[in-house]
Design a protein that fits this description.
The chain is mostly helical. It has two domains: 235 residues, Rhopdopsin 7-helix transmembrane proteins, CATH 1.20.1070; 73 residues, Winged helix-like DNA-binding domain superfamily/Winged helix DNA-binding domain (Arc Repressor Mutant, subunit A, Orthogonal Bundle), CATH 1.10.10. It has 14 helices and two strands, in the order αααααββααααααααα. Strands 1-2 form a two-stranded antiparallel ribbon. A hairpin with a 4-residue loop joins strand 1 and strand 2. The radius of gyration is 23 Å and the shape is elongated.
Length: 316
């Protein structure tokens, strides 16, 4: 395969992935929707795994071979990066499942998170020990079977995405808002296509390296499509009561009068949306105790005693 084609595809993939992250970050800051935070981190962790493990392992092979390093050392270094990037992939899968729940104002329970991370990390540790540990020399030897890795990845990746997409399909049927229902259908249809594309190209890459490039493109770069689609949907149909002019004027006045910090401002906005401490914690990726601390300081600064008085202060 021509090196220039590889460089072009990888460069395009990196730019597309970075654009998806940039747009999703702007959406997260603009709309303050819980699921946008999960979506943002899903793309981030996917991107990091792709750069660190997939592109990184290929890059180190190219560089080491160029310096005429022993092939065994080259493969060991590449496999080392590939295996160590798996925790990012585990986080990305979790964020996708969390996203599918938060699209319907629900959260993943703490027991589910505990079970998920316990099982996935145990599987990861077991693979490292039993699949990578070399008994003949009694130490770690990073020479995992590529075909085995592809099959394992394809299986778990398919399981996670099929579970998430089926959940979206079932829940979307109950949405009364036509525009929202159409948007969600397009969203899970796009991710259904991305799933099929990535799994097929990854497995075909065993026979032809060109399909490996297509896999990288789909795995890291295709997210820009649903992100752009979501951006259009939110611009056209999203309505947020806390963003009316009277609320913003009162909010700005209170921020200036009581010296409210940026983080405290975010907490106030989420309180006005009726979110619980746990939901605020999930949305802002901070602990529940930190949320309570922010609320305590907000009450102290504004002189209110509870959430009702705070929302009344803002005219909500």
């Amino acid at each position: 395969m021509h090196p220039r084609l590889s460089i072009f595809v990888i460069a395009f993939t990196l730019m597309a992935g970075a654009l998806a992250i940039f747009i999703c970050n702007r959406l997260m800051k603009k709309y303050l929707l819980a699921y946008l935070s999960s979506y943002f981190y899903f793309i981030i962790f996917t991107y990091v795994f792709g750069v660190y493990s997939i592109i990184g392992s290929q890059a180190i092979q190219f560089l080491l071979r160029d310096h005429k390093i022993a092939e065994e050392t080259v493969q060991s270094a590449a496999s080392f990066l590939l295996v160590l990037g798996i925790p990012f992939l585990i986080l990305a899968w979790y964020m996708f499942l969390r996203l599918t729940r938060e699209l319907f104002q629900k959260t993943l329970s703490a027991p589910f998170a505990l079970i998920y991370f316990t099982i996935t990390l145990l599987l990861f540790a077991s693979y490292i020990f039993f699949g990578v540990y070399d008994e003949s020399i009694g130490s770690i030897s990073f020479h995992p079977d590529l075909k085995e890795i592809i099959y394992i990845f394809s299986g778990i990746h398919t399981l996670v995405f099929v579970f998430g997409i089926l959940y979206l399909v079932v829940r979307t049927r109950k949405i009364k808002d036509i525009n929202r229902r159409k948007a969600y259908r397009w969203f899970y249809s796009i991710y259904g296509f991305i799933l099929v594309f990535t799994v097929v190209t990854l497995n075909l890459s065993l026979a032809n390296p060109f399909f490996g490039l297509l896999f990288v493109l789909g795995f890291m770069g295709f997210h820009v499509v649903p992100v752009l689609f979501l951006n259009i949907y939110l611009q056209n149909y999203y309505v947020d009561n806390v963003e009316d002019e009277s609320f913003l004027d009162k909010m700005n006045s209170i921020i200036e009068k009581y010296k409210i910090s940026n983080r405290e401002t975010e907490v106030i906005e989420l309180i006005c949306k009726g979110m619980t401490n746990q939901e605020i914690s999930d949305s802002l990726f901070i602990s529940v105790q930190t949320v309570k601390d922010h609320i305590y300081h907000i009450f102290l600064k504004t002189g209110v005693k509870n959430r009702v008085q705070l929302t009344n202060l803002l005219g909500k």
